[in-house]
Every structure is written in C-alpha cells, then in structure tokens.
Specification:
This protein has helices spanning about 5-15, 20-25, 30-40, 55-70. The chain is mainly alpha-helical and about 80 residues long. The longest helix is centred in the last third of the chain and has 16 residues, at about 55-70. It is globular and about 35 Å long.
C-alpha cells in the first residue's frame, strides 16, 4: 500500500523513527504531507505559477527551522 493519506504517511514517519517531524505535526507546525516531504518520502508537484510563492517559502522555512534544532531522526526507547 502507498499513497498520500495521513494515516499512511504518519505510519511511515513512525517506522522511520522521525519523531522530530511527528512532534512538529502534533504541534501543528507542519502538515503530515510537509513532514513526509522533509523526510524524503515524496515530492510535491511542480509549481504552475498560479499560486502564492509565499506558501513554498513558508514551508521551507518551517522545515529548516525544525531540522536546525535536530540532527535527524531521534530514537526513542
């Protein structure tokens, strides 16, 4: 099974040990889709030029700020 459902992407983040990204999702700093993108599970479709460029900048800034404080996946016992 695959796809972009919240349940599937959340399960993949858990299996990969990306608790840093799951914490950000739980605190509504990132969407599950943005967290999965930051983990490298998927890529966004190319920008068509009809939307706001600020949305992409905001997502990139949020992910960079989040990952700046961590050194990748944390392993919780």
């Amino acid at each position: 099974m695959g796809g972009t459902s919240v349940e599937y992407l959340t399960r993949r983040l858990q299996q990969a040990g990306r608790h840093d990204l799951l914490d950000a999702v739980a605190h509504r700093r990132l969407s599950v889709f943005a967290a999965a993108e930051a983990a490298g599970f998927l890529t966004r479709r190319p920008v068509t030029g009809r939307g706001s460029t600020n949305a992409a900048k905001r997502r990139r800034f949020q992910v960079q700020a989040l990952l700046r404080g961590s050194n990748g996946p944390r392993h919780h016992p």
